[in-house]
Structure formats: structure tokens, C-alpha cells
Amino acid sequence: MGELAFVGLGLNDEADISLKGLEKAKDADVVFAELYTSLMSEFNLKKLEELIGKRIHTVSRRDLEEEEGKKIIEEAEKGRVVLLVPGDPLIATTHIDFRIRVHKNGIKTTVVHGASIVSAVIGLSGLQNYKFGRSVTIPFSDIGAFVETPYNVIARNKRAGLHTLCFLDIRAEEKRYMTIKEALQTLFALERRKRQGVITADTLVVGIARAGSDNPSVKADFAQGLLKFDFGKPPHSLVFSGSLHFMEAEALITLAKASENVRRLVK
User: Fold this and answer.
1) 197 and 233 in contact (C-beta within 8 Å)?
2) Do 220 and 137 share a domain, yes or no?
3) Same structural domain, 192 and 257
4) Contact present, 213 and 175 (Cβ < 8 Å)
5) Using one digit for the tens of pLDDT, what is the confidence trace for 111-135?
6) Which of 70, 91, 112 lies at the terminal end of a domain, its last residue?
7) Which CA distances in Å does 92 have to 8, 25, 112, 128, 191?
8) What is the pLDDT of residues 166-183, one digit of tens each?
């Protein structure tokens, strides 16, 4: 049996791959890449192929999920294979599921971690990582069908005084990437339905765009104000604040251009 290495690509472009990950890809017999779970705004596949010195075969959601990664497993049964994944390779649950499946086929797996949106959002905002609760994805609300899970997760975290990291929906095949404005509008619609006071005009929110790039956009404001802020190109992420430590309030004012009014949320 061969080996399958899951290698993180990082957040922004082909230069974000680690030296260890690059060496893994150079030594591999076959290299695959999935680019549908996250958007790397300045990524260039051909430049990465030049760095690695071999062709990269892209795989779709259908290849990994519906067809259970059969073409990758077939190659890994014969030799050394690398699967390149945006961010950290095992943040997405679909990749954990695939790694389990590969193990059950008797194939050795290794992991080369990469920069993750989770740590990047925490670092850029200045919020403290041990004060985050469960994360959640805000999906597109097609044909007026709103999924209530994001609202409920934010509500539970707020009751515990914890922050909520919200991943925003991506449909790579359609080139649709949810914006912070769209996410807030979805949550305001849910608030109008549920009326629990979880998402109001005075809810403190932090928006982050293009984490990992040379020009990330980081802005903290109350939700109504953040609706009007132009974050520019995706990818976008969103954090709903819980109670604040005084250092977190200072970080949001200094690093995320929040108003002095956030100090009243310090507990």
C-alpha cells in the first residue's frame, strides 16, 4: 500500500503552502487538489504546478463526497499521493470523513497542517481564542428557506458569554461567495421570525475579509453599522461577540476600528 498526505495550502495564494508541504508534493507520485471548500482569493494553480514541478489534478465536491474519493484512493493504493486543501486540511468535516475512509482501505495517511481561517480570524480581531464557543456556517437562503441553526448557535454562545465564529457559505461551482452583508441580512430575517433579541441593531459584530492576504479588511461595529461597511472582495468571515475582556475591547478599538462604546460590553 502507498500513502496519502493531506497538505494544507494556507489562506491566500500558492506561496502560503509550507516548505514541508511543498516537499511532500514534490516527492509525490500524484498530486490532487480540492478548491471548493474555501476561496483562496489570489491562488494561481499554474504557479503552484511550477513550484511543485508536476501537474495538479483538481477534484470536485462530487469526486470527494458522492464518489467517495475513489480516484484518489486508487492512486494511493499504488504509490505516494498528496491531496492539497485550502487552509488547514482537516478543518472541513468532509476531509475527516475521507481520511477515515482511506484508513479503512488500509492506506497510511499523514497530515501537513496549514494556516487556518480559525486562527487567522482570532489573530486579526484580537479576540481571545479560549472565549470562542461552537462555530457555525451561515448558508445561502434560497427561495426564502432560512436555516435556523446559525441563529440558535449564536444564541447559545451569547448566553454563555462566548464569541461565535461564522463561516459564510461558498458555492465554488457557481462562483457564489456569501458576503458579510448577505449573512447579516439572513440573520436579521431570522430574528424577525424568532423574536428572541439575539441579532439586533446593537449586536457587536466583527467582519473580516481576505484573511491571510496583504490587505485584509477588519472592522468591528454594531450590526446595523456593519451592514453599510464595504469589505471588498471575498472571502468574508463574521464573528458575533460575547462578553468582552478589557484587552479584547482594546484590541477591537485599536485593530478593528471599533467605537469606544464597546467598552460597555466588558465584564
Assistant:
1) no
2) yes
3) yes
4) no
5) 999 999 999 999 999 999 999 999 9
6) 112
7) 11, 21, 15, 22, 28
8) 999 998 888 899 999 999
Read off the pLDDT band of 145 (50, 70, 90).
low
Q: Is the pLDDT of residue 147 over 90?
A: no
* Overall number of domains in the chain: 2
